[in-house]
Design goal:
It is built from 13 helices and ten strands. By secondary structure, the protein is an alpha/beta fold. The chain is globular and about 70 Å long.
């Protein structure tokens, strides 16, 4: 028995060593050209006290962004059952279309920005099954409303649905996720489906076997239970992980959909001083993140934090905004 355990233990050590060498040792091949984009959240812009329409116009006309991810928050689009309000999203889509831009459109129950899961008050007392039926209705109404818009290139269904450690979300249901994706494909067979995954904590397999495109997050320095942590992950990790997943699954592409370009502290940004914000996102770190992203080899990368750049600019520090402008 001891001999068998030694053999098993030796095999496990070899497997761990091989995985470590594959994912963490060696140099990556930097992308020759990165197509940069941003994620825009009207909700977050309002939380920061910004004129969200002025900000959105400046994203398109001052930064000259051509690739943008927009978000349909369920509680905002359907505040009352079957009474839909697409006015603000309509305006955003139209403004992008006027300028020949491209949209990744995110829809579902779990969406970007804390607390991750958004639901209107009228569903809070419903059972899980009843709630899921209403989510499907919301997705169907949203896709049918926008599927004729040429600027929308990709549907994103849910956001990091397999990340169980983050967000105020009571359940993860893979079978229901399959229903959501099947519904989106039925309503609009022509557009690819994207699913997003955590770059640091997920294998990407859940998304890769369901979607046409995987979008990964990419974070460098954050505040967690152990305080401030800088992830000891080299660029080659993302590149080799991408190559492996694309080899194993029939994917169109993998996108860096959420590249950290704003602070992640122990409290809300509005409550932090500039010095506290700089711990996880100084201007030097901002530039470093851009270079790091190039080194991962991702050819498409969507920066996370355009609302914060604008917020800093309005408070006299335009370095992040002007630094981003050079990319676009």
């Amino acid at each position: 028995m001891k001999k068998i355990l030694k053999i098993v233990f030796s095999i496990l050590i070899i497997i761990v060593l091989v995985l470590f060498l594959y994912f963490f040792v060696g140099k990556s091949k930097p992308a020759e050209k990165v197509e940069w984009g941003v994620t825009f959240s009207e909700r977050y812009a309002k939380d920061l006290g910004l004129d969200w329409q002025k900000l959105f116009s400046d994203i398109l006309d001052d930064l000259m962004v051509k690739k943008i991810r927009l978000i349909a928050y369920w509680d905002e689009v359907e505040p009352q059952e079957k009474k839909y309000n697409f006015d603000d999203l309509d305006w955003q889509v139209e403004e992008v279309e006027k300028r020949g831009g491209e949209i990744i459109f995110a829809v579902g129950w779990r969406m970007p920005r804390w607390p991750e899961c958004y639901e209107p008050d009228w569903v809070k007392s419903l059972s899980k099954k009843e709630k899921q039926t209403k989510i499907l209705d919301f997705i169907a109404e949203t896709i049918n409303h926008y599927k004729d818009k040429k600027s929308i290139k990709i549907w994103q269904i849910e956001n990091e649905p397999f990340l169980r450690t983050f967000g105020k979300c009571p359940w993860v249901d893979a079978k229901f996720l399959d229903k959501e994706i099947a519904l989106a494909r039925h309503l609009d067979p022509s557009r690819p489906i994207m699913m997003t995954e955590s770059g640091e904590f997920n294998t990407w397999i859940g998304g890769a076997k369901r979607a046409d495109i995987v979008g990964t997050s990419l974070y460098r320095k954050v505040h967690g239970k152990l305080g401030y942590i800088k992830y000891p992950i080299p660029p080659v990790f993302y590149q080799r992980k991408s190559n492996l997943i694309k080899t194993l699954f029939d994917l169109k592409e993998i996108i860096a959909i959420e590249v950290q370009a704003e602070p992640w502290g122990d409290k809300q940004i509005q409550q932090m001083t500039n010095s506290e914000q700089d711990i996880t996102m100084s201007f030097e770190q901002f530039i470093d993140v851009l270079e790091y992203t190039r080194k991962t080899g991702f050819e498409k990368a969507y920066l996370w934090g355009v609302e914060w750049w604008y917020w800093r600019k309005e408070r006299g520090d335009d370095r992040f905004w002007e630094g981003a402008k050079a990319l676009f």
